[in-house]
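Before relying on records like the one below, remember that each one covers exactly one chain. Contacts with other chains, cofactors or solvent are not represented anywhere in the record.
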Amino acid sequence: MQTKTQKQEKMQEFERYLKDQQGMVFVDVQGIKVKEIAQLRHSLKRLGAKLTVIKKTLFQKALKEARLPSPAGSANGGQVGNKFVFVFVGGVFSADDAYRAIRQGATLIQLITGMIFEGPQVISEINRGLVERMNRDGFKNISDVVGFDNKR
């Protein structure tokens, strides 16, 4: 069992880690088998990425201490600053799936099953596909796409 000092040091290390990241993907691994998480961790490592598992309460505390916004207030939405966040969960395997969810209002997409079945490279494939679809449809910024289908 860790001492209070060890826990504080670990939190400070994680805060520094959060501040140094260029991008992050947040997923809820609840209900996912340990073997699947290990496979995902191995695949991400091969791509030069890192999988970090942390308790939600510690993660939220680290974000607060690092003065970074929380990605969502709950499993499927919540407040970040003065904006509402809608998290699309489940069934995202392609750029078409993600683009459809964003056009319907998603500001965050949870992508765990897609990564398990398609591999972690699906993230970059989806990102490239999103840019292609935005260009095709005349959008300059992803924020212009969010909820577009509901504005008509």
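The mean pLDDT is 74.
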